[in-house]
Structure formats: C-alpha cells, structure tokens
Amino acid sequence: MNWQSILSSSIGRKVVMAVSGLALFGFVIIHMLGNLLIFAGPAALNGYAEKLESLGEILWVARIGLMVMVVLHIWSGLCLARENRQARPLGYLGKKNTRTTFAATTMAISGLLVLAYIIFHLLHFTFRVTHPQISHLLDADGRRDVYTLVVLSFHELPIALAYFVSMILLSLHLSHGFSSALQTLGIANESSLHGYEKMGRLIAAVIFLGYSSIPTACWLGIIKASH
Ligand code: HEM
User: Fold this and answer.
1) Which residue's CA lies nearest to atom 10 of ligand 1?
2) What's the CA gap between 103 and 195, in Å, rounded?
3) Does 225 map to a domain?
4) What span, in angstroms and rounded, lies between the C-alpha atoms of 73 and 174?
5) SS3 for 193?
6) Which domain holds residue 17?
C-alpha cells in the first residue's frame, strides 16, 4: 500500500488522523511538562528553553515533524467532516438514538478553535510579535528570558483568559480524540472502549489543570516576575 492509496481512502484518512492526533497528543503532554518548570523559577524555565534551542538541527527536525502532523491532522479532519456531512444529507433528522457526547459532536469546531489558538500562541511566544516590549529580554545569565515573557503576558487579563478558555477547548477536543484514535487503530474494541473513554477524559482533565494553572498562577501573582 502506498501513500496515495492511504490518503485517497476514507479508512486510510481516518488512520492518518488517528496517528497524527496521537503524535500531537504526545507533544501536548511533553510541552506541558516543560512549561510547568515555570513553577521552579526563571533559571529552570530559561535553562530548559536554552537547552531546547541548543539541540539545533534535531529541534528543527522535531518542528518540521510537528508541522507535518498538524497539516495531516487538519486535512484528514476536514475530509472526514465533509464525508460525514455528505453521508447525512438530512442533517440530524434521521438520527437514531446513538450514544454520543458533547465533545464528540463538537470535534470540528473545537479543533478549528484550537488551531486559531495555536496561531495566536506562535505569534505570541515563538515569533514574539504580539508583545515586542517584553519579548526580547535577557535574564541575569544572558539567556532568552522566556520566564518573564510568560509571566508578564499573563498579567494581562484578556491574555490569561484567552489561554484559559483555549485550554478548556483543547481538553474537550482531546477528551474525545484519545479514545476515538485508539478505536480507529483497533487498540480499543467494544469491550475496552469504555475504559479508554474514561482514560481519555482523565488525561484531558490533567492536561487542562496543568496548562491552565500557568496563566492562573501568573495572573493571581502566585508566580512572580523576576524583573
Ligand atoms: C499555558 C499554556 C502554554 C504556555 C505557557 C506555553 C508556552 C510556550 C512558550 C514559552 C513557547 C516558546 C518556547 C521558546 O521559544 O523557547 C511555546 C512554543 C510552542 N507552543 Fe506553547 N505554551 C502553552 C500551551 C500550548 C499548547 C496547548 C499548545 C498546543 C496545542 C502549544 C504549542 C506550542 C508550539 C507548537 C510551540 C512552538 C514550538 C517550537 O517551535 O519549538 N502550546 N509555548
């Protein structure tokens, strides 16, 4: 089976969506653990950012891999949403009482809103165009002061709130995506699906708490600026 036949079949696209989704899920967990270093202070977070940067080409390979996963995930998701609409010309009129959840029925919209968040997030922290006055500071050791950028950004209520709401949407998306991907890949079957659904919701709740604790703690002044 070649790439063309995988991408042109409906089940192939579902597998692409599941694999890319699980890869992005892994990134979200690793990124959260890295970001939580902010609770250990400026040296820990800035040192971590510096170490990542020093990976050089390896970091770029990871970034390109991440970008490919994002593109594949969005493309396969949009194809699937279109196929579902075409298979249901009467909308939900003929729908029987199938078991579904709010997270499952809002996957396309929560996914697109998370994408909008990611675009803003990259402009904010990676390309550093939204807060130029605090984006290029250096810490006492001459490193890029990622800590101060994050803390001072979240002193602005609209920014802290936007992140908080985005983390609700992200965890909603992941809470269904996890078990759905495992089902597509045949890892979750009829008897184990319920357990994986619970596991997905639990991991999504941990992801929400982990990420949202950062804007919350900065805004409340629990994490203080070092400058
Ligand atoms: C409170 C929540 C978050 C904080 C404080 C945070 C913080 C950061 C920071 C500081 C950077 C820049 C790192 C650097 O340039 O050294 C970054 C990059 C990035 N973040 Fe986040 N992040 C958060 C949530 C997320 C979420 C939920 C996602 C994805 C769904 C995400 C995806 C990314 C991506 C793709 C990059 C670019 C990575 C790279 O190019 O190396 N972030 N984040």
Assistant:
1) 125
2) 17
3) no
4) 13
5) helix
6) 3-219
> How many whole angstroms separate alpha carbon 82 and alpha carbon 88?
10
Q: What percent of the chain has pLDDT over 90?
A: 84
- Indicate the pLDDT class of residue 83, thresholds 50, 70 and 90: confident
Tell me, using a 6 A CB cutoff, whether residue 31 lines ligand 1. yes
- For the CA atoms of the chain, what is the radius of gyration? 20
Rounded alpha-carbon distances, angstroms, from residue 157 to 60, 120, 150: 33, 16, 13
For residue 92, how far is its CA from the centre of ligand 1 (angstroms)? 38
Q: For atom 36 of ligand 1, which residue has the closest CA?
A: 122
- Residues 139 and 146: their CA atoms lie apart, in Å, by 9
Q: Which of 218, 10, 205, 27 is nearest to 103 (CA)?
A: 205
Q: What is the mean pLDDT of residues 108-136?
A: 95
Give the total number of structural domains in the chain: 1
pTM of the model: 0.92
The better pLDDT of the pair 85, 195 is held by 195
Q: Is 131 in the pocket of ligand 1 (CB under 6 A)?
A: no
Q: Whose CA is nearest to atom 43 of ligand 1?
A: 125
Task: Tell me whether residue 99 is in a domain.
Answer: yes
In a domain, residue 61? The reply is yes
**Whether the CB of 120 sits within 6 Å of ligand 1:** no
Strand pairing partners for 138? 144
DSSP one-letter code for 123: I
The answer as to whether 226 is a domain residue is no
**From the CA of 31, how far away is ligand 1's center (Å)?**
7
